[in-house]
Amino acid sequence: MEAASKTGDWVMLQNCHLAKSWMDDLEKRTLDLTERQDINKDFRLFLTSMPAPYFPVSTLQNGVKMTTEPPRGIKANLKRSYTDLSQKTLDDCKKPDIWRKLIFGLSFFHAIVQERRKFGPLGWNTAYEFNDSDLDTSITMLKIFLDDQDEIPWDALVYVTGHINYGGRVTDDNDRKCLLTTL
Q1: Is the dihedral of CA 85, 88, 93, 95 positive or negative?
Q2: Does the pLDDT at position 38 exceed 90?
Q3: One domain for residues 39 and 110
Q4: DSSP-assigned letter for residue 15
Q5: For residue 85, which of 17, 74, 103, 104 sits 20 to 30 Å off, Cα-Cα?
Q6: Whether residue 55 is found in the same domain as residue 118
Q7: Same domain, 103 and 177
C-alpha cells in the first residue's frame, strides 16, 4: 500500500473480514493515507469484505462503498444467474442437452436457497451466506463430471453440490436435510 500510494498503482485486498486480527492495523494504515499529502492521484485502494461488526468504521466512512445483494425473488435470481452465463459456456460441453438442463436445475436450486433467507428462522435455522461462487463452483464441477464420464454420475453430483459446495456452509442438521431435499 505504501509503495503503490507513491507510484499510483492500484491495490486490492480481498476478503478483509477473514483477517479480524489485522483490522486495527488496516484502520491505522487507511487513516495515515487520508492524512498524507504525497499520494499519487492515480492510487486506488480496493477492499472487499462480507459485513463484519469488527470492520473499522473510519475506513468505511473515508471510502466509497458498493454492495451487492442477491436479487429479490426467484425470477430475478434466475435472471441474474443467466446473465452471468455466456453463450460459449452454454455451448461448451460434450453433452449439451443434459448440460443446459442441469445448469437450469442448479440455477433454480441456487435461487431457492437464497430466497429462503428472507424468511429468517422459517427458511433456515441458522443464517447462511450462499453466494454466486457456490453456483459457479457447482457449474464448473458439473461440466467436469459430464465431460469426463460416459454416464451421468448422479450420486457424485449430489454429493459435491449438496454436501461440499453448498453444504460446506451448513452447520445445522435439519438445514442440511432441507438443502439436500431441495437439491
Answers
A1: positive
A2: no
A3: no
A4: -
A5: 17
A6: no
A7: yes
Q: Which domain holds residue 92?
A: 74-182
Among candidate residues 103, 158, 168, the one with its CA nearest the CA of residue 130: 168
pLDDT of residue 156: 93
Query: Measured between alpha carbons, how far is residue 58 from residues 3, 13, 36, 64 in Å?
Result: 22, 17, 16, 12
Domain check: are 52 and 82 in the same one? no
pLDDT 10s digits, 115-168 = 888 887 778 888 888 888 899 999 999 999 999 999 999 999 999 999 999 999
What percent of the chain stands above pLDDT 90? 40
Q: What is the mean pLDDT of residues 23-41?
A: 87
The closest alpha carbon to 57, from 23, 14, 100, belongs to 23
pTM for the full predicted model? 0.62
Nearest to 142 by CA among 126, 129, 158, 131: 158
Residue that is written with C-alpha cell 434466475 in the block = 78
Specify the residue for cell string 429462503: 116
All three cell numbers of 50, joined, read 462480507
HSE, CB side, 13 Å, CA atoms: give it for residue 83.
8
Cell of 161: 453440490
pLDDT of residue 161: 94
Write phi, then psi, for 12 (nearest 5 degrees): -125, 120
Residues 157, 39: Cα–Cα separation, whole Å: 51
Contacts of 125 (CB under 8 A, 6+ apart): 172, 174, 175
